[in-house]
């Protein structure tokens, strides 16, 4: 008896996976369509909300997201994954898609800045980068956008701070802090806010030297070109900007 | 001893050319293609001209050296603790043995990243053992080379245990009993009868264990972090290279592959050479 719902769920999941793998279907006569958006992992919460808003304003339209690291997404897009829109967490990976002819005319829709994440209540009294000299802290690896930004900010401060670990992505960096293995972590403000009370964010002036711009573009081979343009405009408009602002992004 | 007899038998005579049944040949060839084609894909995409300059990069050499040292240390630890565990599971007679056997394979099933978090919860600064080490001796394990070795041992020891236990179960216990009736002590029986009988199984397990440790990624980056020269092994270097440069990542993977195949092949020659 109990196996049936499980089987049904599995079948539904499989059907969904197949459907997603096939990419956005083209629009049918009654306007029903699926828009496929490839977006950076750091946009997961805010873009899910923006997608819901977009769906409620466009009858019959379903927005499917593929959230992953921007470099993975750029590779998938240049290798021909069927997507309509690409929202990258940095200019570099958007440039890769543009150079490959997969994307056109990207526009910056959000800015993100680094903060020093510390345990709730800031037990070590961190007020700026210089305080990290006597503490252990984690940062992203220079190969990924948040690590490049961290290195730029550290260089701008004129110190030669070295983290105890160069993590592969910003969530892993923050995880080292929430597990208590480091005293501080250099992460984006949005990630510190998403950690919701577990960590405090300490702003520091040098992060202004390493502001990260998020570009969005409709893809040249988009199965739903018109909807892709609509969605891109929607993200740049007030409603979506308010959602992004609440998540800790700044307006461009 | 039958083990000696098999070794002394001239191998050629028994391996007369036989026709391989199609029912075996077809799936074998298909399976081989499945295993080998991805490697061929990497080889085809590899920028060969970059190889020498990559090899000369100090970070890469450091990562390669660290990988070889830590994987070997993890294999040594696995042998030290894993062979006794396998003996307990195969020869021991105690309640809960089945449950214990299942628990030993947990690291095989656990996603390595979760394994890394689990290690942090035990050996981390706030961990069950780690907090005590930190407060009492000011020792922190995460972010050190020791952490790399521990992470590798955690994920690779089960391979050794499973393979040695299989060898022990396949070995004829009557030889051990015979040695015991002839007056050999338990330890002597183990070192002079059991171990030589299961040597091929131990070696196969050690090779599996070493290879798994060498490729270890998830538990290592979670538990030991990523710091060049200290905890950045080759798989970590490959993953980070993949973030910015696909071709560099392929070159690094091929270096790791070539080195591991060379090490295993030379070991095998030495081992079979010593036996012949």
From TrEMBL, chain A:
Got a GO cellular component term for this one?
plasma membrane
State the PROSITE patterns in the record. Answer: PROKAR_LIPOPROTEIN (PS51257)
Kindly give the membrane topology term recorded for this protein. Lipid-anchor
Keywords assigned by UniProt, alphabetized? Cell membrane, Membrane, Metal-binding, Molybdenum, Signal, Transport, Tungsten
Pfam families (alphabetical): SBP_bac_11 (PF13531)
What is the superkingdom listed in this entry's lineage?
Bacteria
The reply on keyword Transport is yes
Report residues binding molybdate. Answer: 42, 70, 170, 188
One GO MF term attached to the UniProt entry: molybdate ion binding
Q: Tell me where the signal peptide lies.
A: 1-23
Query: What Gene Ontology terms for biological process does this UniProt record contain?
Result: molybdate ion transport
**Which coarse location class describes where this protein primarily resides?**
membrane
Which locations, inside or outside the cell, does it occupy? Cell membrane
Q: What InterPro entries does the entry give? A: ModA, ModA/WtpA
- Is Transmembrane helix given among the entry's keywords? no
Give the record's family classification.
Belongs to the bacterial solute-binding protein ModA family.
Function text: Involved in the transport of molybdenum into the cell. Part of the binding-protein-dependent transport system ModABCD.
Q: Which NCBIfam families match?
A: modA
The UniProt subunit note reads as follows: The complex is composed of two ATP-binding proteins (ModC), two transmembrane proteins (ModB) and a solute-binding protein (ModA).
Name listed for the protein in its UniProt record: Molybdate-binding protein ModA
Q: Which organism is it from?
A: Glycomyces harbinensis
Automatic annotation (TrEMBL), chain B:
What's the stated role of this polypeptide?
Answer: Part of the ABC transporter complex CysAWTP (TC 3.A.1.6.1) involved in sulfate/thiosulfate import. Probably responsible for the translocation of the substrate across the membrane. Part of the binding-protein-dependent transport system for molybdenum; probably responsible for the translocation of the substrate across the membrane.
Family classification: Belongs to the binding-protein-dependent transport system permease family. CysTW subfamily.
Return the Gene3D superfamilies for the record. Answer: MetI-like
Q: How does it sit in the membrane?
A: Multi-pass membrane protein
Q: Which domain of life is it from?
A: Bacteria
Q: What is this protein called?
A: Molybdenum transport system permease
Give the organism the record lists: Glycomyces harbinensis
Q: How does it assemble?
A: The complex is composed of two ATP-binding proteins (CysA), two transmembrane proteins (CysT and CysW) and a solute-binding protein (CysP).
Known InterPro entries for this protein? MetI-like, MetI-like_sf, ModB_ABC, NifC_ABC_porter, Sulph_transpt2
Gene Ontology terms, cellular component aspect? plasma membrane
Cross-referenced NCBIfam families: Mo_ABC_porter (TIGR01581), modB_ABC (TIGR02141)
Which molecular function term from Gene Ontology is one that the record holds?
molybdate ion transmembrane transporter activity
